[in-house]
Amino acid sequence: MPDASRAAFIPADAITPERDITHEHFAPGDQIVVIKGVDDGILWGDVMTVVTPSWHTPTNEDGWRLRDPNGGALSFVTGHPRYLVHPSQKCPDCLIYHRALQDYLVPRFSERKPVDVGWYSVTETNQLVHVADGRGSR
User: Fold this and answer.
1) What is the dihedral of CA 30, 69, 114, 86, to 10 degrees?
2) Helices (H) and strands (E) in the chain — how many of each?
3) Would you tell me how many other CB atoms lie within 10 Å of the CB of residue 16?
4) 46 CB contacts (<8 Å, ≥6 apart)?
């Protein structure tokens, strides 16, 4: 993750909350990215590995336990499938989602420095939560 500054304004995310992606789309061992912001015209995020199914408490839906290799105390977090993106160019569903986020976010940030759009936080129980799924978040 780049050393990102927090966005001065947080654009509303109308894309992720409406994403229709199933739990079965991801599997243990998959490498994924949680898109966190923009850096010099490209999207950036946290790269993690899917470990095992896990209940995502903030949404009361099936989620995935994720391993963040740079996580320290937060080496394992649970996230909802709609937050996750396969980085491979071979996944059409994730490519469509990634492209939609890119078309939406990149024009809003012209800075050459990394910007975190502030859509995600982690709860006390290591649940990755999107602002649209704020129930139970800090």
Assistant:
1) 0
2) 1, 8
3) 20
4) 1, 33, 34, 36, 68, 70
Type of residue at 10: I
Structure pTM?
A: 0.89
Look at the block and give the residue holding tokens 């129930």: 135
Whole-angstrom distance, CA of residue 55 vs CA of residue 63: 5
Predicted confidence at residue 6, as pLDDT, reads 73
Closest CA to 68 of 138, 5, 135, 126: 126
The answer to whether residue 26 scores a pLDDT higher than 50 is: yes
Tokens representing 121 are 């936080």
What count of residues does the chain have? 138
Q: Write 98-107 long-range contacts (CB < 8 A, 24+).
A: 98/35, 98/43, 100/15, 101/15, 101/16, 101/35, 101/43, 102/42, 102/43, 104/11, 104/14, 104/15, 105/11, 105/37, 105/38, 105/43, 106/38, 106/41, 106/42, 106/43
Tokens coding 41? 């015209």
Q: What is the mean pLDDT of the chain?
A: 90
| Per-residue pLDDT at 13 | 94
Q: What pLDDT band is residue 4 in, cutting at 50, 70 and 90?
A: low
